[in-house]
Prior knowledge:
Blueprint: E1 6-10, H1 14-26, E2 30-34, H2 37-46, E3 51-54, H3 63-70, E4 77-82, H4 87-95, E5 100-103, H5 108-120, E6 134-136, E7 139-142, E8 147-150, E9 153-155, H6 159-170, E10 175-176, H7 178-186, H8 196-208, E11 218-221, E12 225-228
Helix pairs in contact: 4-8, 6-8
Amino acid sequence: MDAVARILLIEDDERLAQLVADALRKAGYAVAISGDGVAGEALARQEMFDLVLLDGHLPGKDGFDVLRDLRRDFTGRIVMLTARDDDIDQVLGLEGGADDYITKPVAPRVLLARIKALLRRDVVPAAQPVGEALHFGPLTLLPQSRELRLNGEPVPLTTAEYELLHFLAQRAGQVVSRDDIMQNLRGLEFDGLDRAIDARISRLRKKIGDDAHSPSRIKTVRGQGYLFAID
């Protein structure tokens, strides 16, 4: 029997938290709830959760501060679930390490679809070949351990960052569209407004030392997508 995915919901609106938790439990997930930023962050560190649903505005500690501090060592998925729908807030959340950013109100079926798409990426069939190391100048991707090394030194990546980088590196020299990325990594269609990919590319460029203004490794091809350059 497959293990039940564990989700932590950090939300101070008790009624909303209960509605979301009920929907998640009906879908087969194990759910814990915290209504405070400080307590929620502590719980996320104490127990093994596969995914954290995090409100942006919380008592005790702001959700965006929780995201920033939690992302330093939490390896699971983090989804911002907030009424703050400004583009700036979305970019801050995604660049802060969120795997997805969902604005409230959201239909339960939409929320479940986004969560399933994220968790699906963590399931790797036992018979699936892992693949050999990929080398690009000072960069080395190690699929066996899901690591990135730069000049031999490990570079910390979130799960979503590693998956995106590996997806692009496997297609080095080819232009990959945002729709291809969304379909393959999240099982969703690109709606033209989602900033998650762009924000994640921005973070990856910083981590691999790529010039943000004139990148030489992960290039933007206007109107088409991204190109992982071959040496």
